[in-house]
């Protein structure tokens, strides 16, 4: 394998990017080497990263971290229009003239197709780096904000903004975005104190003519470096106000974080624990350790006895270098695959959601039935709405990943489901949920508002359910009191209607496959909404069932034919509904550890009570006084019909609704659930002490059947 200098340069660059992005660090050669020294890595990892850094320093090319790229939503333009032509001319002008002094603003065209724009590079950035950064910004802003009349993109080294309205000399000081480092300080209080000192230094230092200032503070165990920058067409007073707003925001968003960026459209503030300003900037007030001078020894000719040693050293060095190069190449090939796949996956998914004809994922007979275009929300907005996905905003966590509460800028509350990269749920599952929910519209199904595919993240944004999920009330010793008979009646009816819509009334025949109490959300009026369609599947044409090698879902709600053989149909959801119905009636979990009579499951307990004529004992004590007993017993009967072993014996959901609402309909006798485990009940005469030593004991094994047969047998002890 022959490697050119260019390919080696690109290889090293990609390897460093792929690793350091996972650490949430942003790049310059100096920051890479300093940060590497401060990390505690395994020896092998340290060697690899050290080599990559050294190679990168040799073949260095600028790597800049993109901070934000919001596309303003104040109108679109069409390809080939005058506005598009003027925008291209404007961007070329900014790219050409800005590197001269680091700032340039201009406009192109005449109203109503006039475009205003500005570009600015950081004052410590060279002209070549500025030009390259702006070139990257031009390409990215067109790609990420296609046909948008307003756009803004910010890199560490430069910013670029355009609009169809003039914004020159108009300060925009409200904090828009905050990007904290993922790593936190060991002593947050001490670190925050030093950050406060740094912020005070930055705000009190007189700004340079380029609206830029940098400073640093020293602590016993660390140093913190910071810089602030404003757009050069606003006044110093406006810049100062903007920076104070940023500093206040840092105190709220980034406490204890080892680095952070906060910005608005007019100013930008950043701090890190490593120096990130280029060398050509004015020197920072940082204590520089004294390096002892290197003493050069006089050269001497090698002694004869050293000849073999020199040869050995040369061979070992050559082998070592060859091994290291091979390691670099292998690790590069292994690590580059995932970022490329993620980028291609995100691009494919974005294209699918916006433009794709979803016929091949639904079925051939629905060709031309377009997937409804789903609104895309940018990651920065979601991050801000959830307070950077803080634990205080976390609502819960499932197989997909954590769910967070968020509040948008307009005050709307949302629920954000964030795909966990370790969950194993990939493109198809994510696409599956988005596609299905986008096509399904029913008052008892949760509503999907937006989605996000950005920075390797996949997020779904739903309407917020203030009362969370059914299990949070049903199995809580305090909240369960809020679920009276009327509310439970409405919840059961709503779940059943939602399933009928999925199975029979929608354009697709959907099998949910994971119906359970935690996947039934409750709105502000306690109306139920079925959620979580990541595991749902559809049946095409006349297909009535489907077989899969991958069984997914929650075991205690899972139909036996699915759990044991991977076979699922609409009757699989009927089984799950039957389990859920018995849980709602009893207020107990199916696999509770506190079931009476040593029952292994709620189904076992319900079946025993039904066979012995004691079905009323299954009813939640909270309902006894308020519920119509006969109706509840009928519901228990329906629940047992739904959980029968043979799927063919179970009713359809439309039949279930008819049974629930029509009390005059005669119900068939239920058959034993598959998970019912018979137990021997030993009855001994405890009134006589001598009974313990009797040679024989009556053992009665009670087996429930339609004929109520009781079989007695004698067994020798």
Please give a handful of descriptors for the protein shown.
single chain; Killer Toxin P4, Chain A; 717 residues; alpha+beta; five-stranded antiparallel sheet; 19 helices; disordered N terminus; 38% helix; 24 strands
| Global shape | elongated
Helicity level: 25-40%
Low-confidence stretches: 1-10, 13-64, 279-306, 354-372, 676-717
| CATH domain class of the largest domain | Mainly Alpha
CATH fold-type name of the largest domain:
Transferase(Phosphotransferase), domain 1
Estimated structural class: alpha+beta
Radius of gyration: 34 Å
Kindly report how far apart the N and C termini lie.
80 Å
Tell me the number of strands: 24
Strand composition percent: 15-25%
Structural domain tally: 6
Mean pLDDT across every amino acid position: 75
Short précis:
The chain has 717 residues and is an alpha+beta fold.
Describe the structure.
The chain is α+β, with helices and mostly antiparallel strands. The chain folds into six domains: 5-63, no CATH class; 66-163, Killer Toxin P4, Chain A (2-Layer Sandwich); 177-272, 2-Layer Sandwich (Killer Toxin P4, Chain A), CATH 3.30.430.20; 369-463, Phosphorylase Kinase, domain 1; 477-661, Transferase(Phosphotransferase) domain 1 (Transferase(Phosphotransferase), domain 1), CATH 1.10.510; 681-716, no CATH class. It is built from 19 helices and 24 strands. A five-stranded antiparallel beta sheet has the order 1-4-5-3-2, with helices on one face. The protein is elongated, with a radius of gyration of 34 Å. The termini are far apart. Mean pLDDT is 75; it is low at 1-10, 13-64, 279-306, 354-372 and 676-717.
